[in-house]
Amino acid sequence: MLASQLSQRRLVPGRTLMFRCVLTAAALVLFAGSPSAHAQKQTIGAPPEASNMKLVGFNDLQARSAYQPTIHHQGDRWIAYIGHHGGTDDVPDPVNPMTGNAEPNGTSILDVTDPAHPKYLRHLPGQEGKYESGGAQMVRVCDGKSLPKGDPNAVYMLRTFGSQAHEIWNVADPANPVLITRLGGLKDTHKSWWECDTGIAYLVSGAPDWRTRRMTQIYDLSDPAHPQKIRDFGLPGQEPGATGAVPTELHGPISTGPNGNRVYFGYGTNKGGILQIVDREKLLNGPKEPTPDNLRFPEISRLPMSAFNGAHTTFPMLDMPVAEFAEDKDGKTRDIVMIVDEAILNECGEARQMVWFADVTTETRPMMISSYTVPEASGQFCQRGGRFGSHSSNESMAPVYYKKMAFIAFFNAGVRALDIRDPYHPREVGYFIPAITSATDKRCIPVEGGERCKVAIQTNNVETDDRGYIYIVDRANTGLHILELTGAARAVAGLPKN
User: What angle do CA 93, 94, 96 make, to 5 degrees?
Assistant: First the structure.
């Protein structure tokens, strides 16, 4: 993510580079007759554009720009915790209708036990500020009974606080959160990861003495009331006192925990990306002073990406059976990492940001094996307004979808459902593009004599729950949509017919 308002509304269009789309015949059939095929401009009140996905429930999230949704099974309820970007130029502090007060964007908490009727429970304000300089974008949740030293009666929510801090709240009563811990003094925060079984947290931070905007601070949060710092980590050249060029900044990590003993770091967003594979045990227990040698010590390998593409999300799918290879003597299963870039500029003012699949079975020699993008012509998305390209994937490893389906937030192309059972040939099997509302914010680009603004959906992030529901949130203030698969897409996931 970019920290400036330019990433939200006013972006200078750069050179557009169109990648050749990797499509199977089945995907081409899917797009034939799509209602988006000739649509360029969304209108309020129009039906959503969909294939093999349908809307179950909706909440407007108080017209706040949304980033990360986390869905937590909490007792006999399902609770959605949704992080928000800061406010906009037009509405820096939206009114919370539950209190009647204007509040900086923060965290929305909803009961989604009945997904057809999500109930808004609480808005917890974040940092004052607009776009990515405010709000509380990131949120993770762990039960106290799962954490080694947690209060078994507590449920802990870890969130960012704008660019300044990380916070831990007790949300055992999700309508009445209680602040437990604050880790402050930072200059930027973003997409963190928390291991609920160990308490180890990989906090994307901006330490004031480091040379990069975002790096990793690793904490033991097994007792959230008494956090213990383990170390700082980043790429050599980012550390304090280094000289020369500064490597591209961190976006976020995903850990496989002590059993998998790997952490997959993604650096860059829309250019010069890096997938870094790290030995978790060496990372946590190796030498901790941030010298170049110590930063290199836990690294197993890197996969540098093109100058055109970044690494927003690096999602591991290890020991993955591939039916095509079932009769082969070797390589019947593969270790795969799905890498999702982030589109940054409006109206295709950059290279296409996509989804990539890397085979990391031989960890020291990872290689790209396939890619996926939404065909631009299927909806004339470059003309619709806002960003077009990938941003993020669901990150749940629940069996309902893991290693079978992935859901990709694609900004003005909505959410796309991929059959990934053969990661060498990912195949789209469904999509859902919500309709805009009166709250949907405009997205602008500079043109001669001023700027051109358009209103389009901006599906930002996506998550799934263990029941199989899909949750998408919108960057342009359109709210939360709760979806389910229909038709042939349900069969891919092994779900019963509906």
Answer: 120
**Residue 348 to residue 340: CA distance in whole angstroms:** 17
CA pair distance 305, 268, nearest whole angstrom:
9
**What is the average per-residue pLDDT within 265-286?**
96
**CA-based end-to-end distance of the chain:** 38
Q: Give the model confidence (pLDDT) of 297-352 as tens digits.
A: 999 999 999 999 999 999 999 999 999 999 999 999 999 999 999 999 999 999 99
3-state secondary structure the chain: CCCCHHHCCECCCCCCECCCCCCCHHHHHHHCCCCCCCCCCCCCCCCCEEECEEEEEEECHHHCCEEEEEEEEECCEEEEEEEEECECCCCCCCEECCCCEECCCEEEEEECCCCCCCEEEEEEECECCEHHHCEECCEEEEECCCCCCCCCCCEEEEEEECCCEEEEEECCCCCCCEEEEEECCCCCECCCEECCCCCEEEEEECCCCCCCCCEEEEEECCCCCCCEEEEEECCCCCCCCCCCCCCCCEEEEEECHHHHCEEEEEECCCCCCEEEEEEHHHHHHCCCCCCHHHHHCCEEEEEECCCCCCCCEEEEEEEEECHHHCCCCCCCEEEEEEEECCCCCECCCCECCCEEEEECCCCCCCEEEEEECCCHHHCCHHHCCCEEEEEEECCCCCCCCCCCEEEEEEECCCEEEEECCCCCCCEEEEEEECCCCCCCCEEEEEECCEEEEEECCCEEEEEECCCCCEEEEECCCCCEEEEEECHHHHHHHCCCCC
Is 354 a residue whose pLDDT tops 90? yes
The C-alpha atoms of residue 447 and residue 406 are separated, in whole angstroms, by 37
- Judged against a pLDDT cut of 50, whether residue 16 lies above it is answered with no
| Model confidence at 27: pLDDT above 90 | no
CB 316 within 8 A of CB 337: yes
The structure's pTM equals: 0.91
pLDDT at residue 131, as a whole number: 85
**Cα–Cα distance, 7 to 193 (Å, whole number):** 24
CA atoms within 13 A on the CB side of 89: 11
| Torsion angles phi and psi, residue 354, rounded to 5 | -135, -170
